[in-house]
Design goal:
alpha/beta; TIM Barrel; 2 domains; elongated; Pantoate_hydroxy_MeTrfase; 3-methyl-2-oxobutanoate hydroxymethyltransferase activity; transferase; Pyrv_kinase-like_dom_sf; methyltransferase
Amino acid sequence: MLSRSAFLHGHSAVRAATARTASQLSTNGTRTSFQNIFVQSRNSHYNSKSDDVNARPPVTIPQLRKLYKNKTPISMITAHDYISGMLADRAGVDMVLVGDSLAMVSMGHESTSEIDLNDMVYHTRAVSRGVKSSFLIADLPFGSYETSPEQAFDSAVKMIKKGNAQAVKIEGGKELYPTIKKLTDFGIPVVGHIGLTPQRQNALGGFRVQGKTAKSAVELLENALAIQEAGCFIMIIEAVPDKVGSLITEKLSVPTIGIGAGPGTSGQVLVQLDMLGGFDAFVPKFLKRYSNYLETNVNAIKTYSDEVKSHQFPSTEHTYSITDDEFAKFQDLVAKKGY
């Protein structure tokens, strides 16, 4: 098990990922090849982030460690496109997650398991264009990492190289130890996810609260300890009793981000469209709505449509003008050409 000081000072895999320099990675053939991909991709991404002189400094893993050390809650929110990424970044959240929840809230699928890696890379790249400072994480979707550590490595490289993600998130526990260790050994930051794991909701019997018995809660803790030992630098705990979320957080030496796990975790995450009131097909108990996106925007579009039909839009203030002289010339030319 990692000690708290080991996390705060950084173990070698995560330290290598955050430093982003060639000297911090092994120079054998395979690692050198990935190192070039990782360093070039991140340098390109951060150069683009620095264009806005008014932007916050980029959030880094060491800064997240500092928040954790100081017991400052960490804020995370999802994003699915350029605009939602920009909104999250301008709001000043610490971390932006391109979650596979976008399969439901953005693409209209019935579950998160219907999205594939190419879809996730596409959306992550779009979000990255709007995120200037927040730390950007992307889900590896169902079917993109379970076969082998090698499959997960290939998927993670694609997500970082083409999607501009800074870390990848995978769902599961101790069975993913070899996978997480391979990724972190090669300098890929990994976010874990335990509790309710939506990609496995069929096996779990649907979207159900996890860890409600002593036995199942112990299993959650054991899974958390295992993926921490494998190298996760942070992990999400979803849909567990608040006391269970708090105790698991106390036993770990890395931050936890709760979603339906109570106030005792190191931080919180919500799906952006959920908390804005933009998705009403499924409303979990843990959701707090901070806006009424659907009603506000439906009303706005309806007003626009009504104004079009009643000739109220566009008005003079929304149109371009031409001088009377030029318009008269235009009419003469039309007449002469016989149009």
